């Protein structure tokens, strides 16, 4: 579930291992390029965290962030998220 914290949408995903987490990130990168909206993310071993906000809108959450969040969720649905 995405949470609105400090003017950003945030969510963490946990996978079985680093390789799976990185494969997920690779697919998310393609979606981010397609949507021309690039997230802040962190990856430590099997955990990937995102913070979405729109810099051009004064670092506020916008419809672009919600579209990217939905795209990330669609990618995650193809993986076994723990």
Produce the secondary structure layout.
Elements: E1 3-5, E2 8-14, H1 18-35, E3 40-44, E4 47-52, H2 63-76
Antiparallel strand pairs: 1-2, 2-4, 3-4
Helix pairs in contact: 1-2
Enzyme class: lyase
InterPro entries: PCD_sf, Pterin_deHydtase
Family: Belongs to the pterin-4-alpha-carbinolamine dehydratase family.
User: What fraction of the residues are assigned to beta strands by DSSP?
Assistant: 25-35%
Instruction: Give the mean pLDDT.
Output: 97
What profile does the largest beta sheet have?
A: 4 strands, antiparallel
Side-by-side strand order of the widest sheet: 1-2-4-3
Q: Indicate the percent of residues in helices.
A: 25-40%
Q: Helix and strand string, N-terminal first?
A: EEHEEH
What structural class should be given to the helix and strand makeup? alpha+beta
List the defining traits of the structure above:
single chain, 82 residues, alpha+beta, 4-stranded antiparallel sheet, PCD_sf, 4-alpha-hydroxytetrahydrobiopterin dehydratase activity, lyase, EC 4.2.1.96
Write up this protein.
Belongs to the pterin-4-alpha-carbinolamine dehydratase family. This is 4a-hydroxytetrahydrobiopterin dehydratase. Keywords: Lyase. The protein is of the alpha+beta class. It is built from two helices and four strands, in the order ββαββα. The protein has a four-stranded antiparallel beta sheet with strand order 1-2-4-3, with helices on one face. Helix 1 runs antiparallel to helix 2. The radius of gyration is 12 Å and the shape is globular. The chain starts with a strand and ends in a 6-residue tail after the last helix. The mean pLDDT is 97.
